[in-house]
Amino acid sequence: MFRHPQLETKYARSDAPLTLQGETRIEGYASRFGEVDQGGDLVMPGAYQASLSALSASGRKVKMLWQHDPAQPIGVWDEVREDATGLWVSGRLLRETQRGAEAIALISAGALDGLSIGYRTRRSRKTDSGQRQLMTVELWEVSLVTFPMLATARLDDMRGKSQTPETASQILARSLRAATAALAAGQPQETK
Fold this sequence. Notes:
Blueprint: E1 8-10, E2 24-32, E3 41-43, H1 49-58, E4 63-66, E5 69-82, E6 86-93, H2 98-109, E7 114-126, E8 132-145, E9 155-159, H3 168-184
Parallel strand pairs: 3-8, 4-8
Antiparallel strand pairs: 1-7, 2-6, 2-9, 4-5, 5-6, 7-8
């Protein structure tokens, strides 16, 4: 995996074919203010503002990557903003990409939910206790990751997963499970 030599990452803590209709949207906090990560860093409020303004002015967007690999974009962040809590992201996974489809499957199964930022520190300071406070960062990307550096940097939601069409065999299996449960409970089952 290629890594830019000056780019830092913060791991702030997807055999059946996957078919989804509509968009698969994800959202959550990629970074939270006031929380020390596993590397001892603390991102301060306002740290992202200059970078987000510069990206917006140039018409560019923060990239959505798979595990910080620049060769594997998996979607598009439609909204990246700083609020009182931290860095909020909302975007679309591209199921047309191999890793995007894998991410959808892993998120749906509950196996993947971490978010992590890739950035360059522009201004920081050390506290008396040796903690690094990130005052200004140049944000490059937000990745879906297995192990986030900040345990609370997680996906809050994935919309679109309920739009998976049921196959005839899935409908039959669901109906059989319901009928079996009703028979076991001694209740009559209506058929349709």
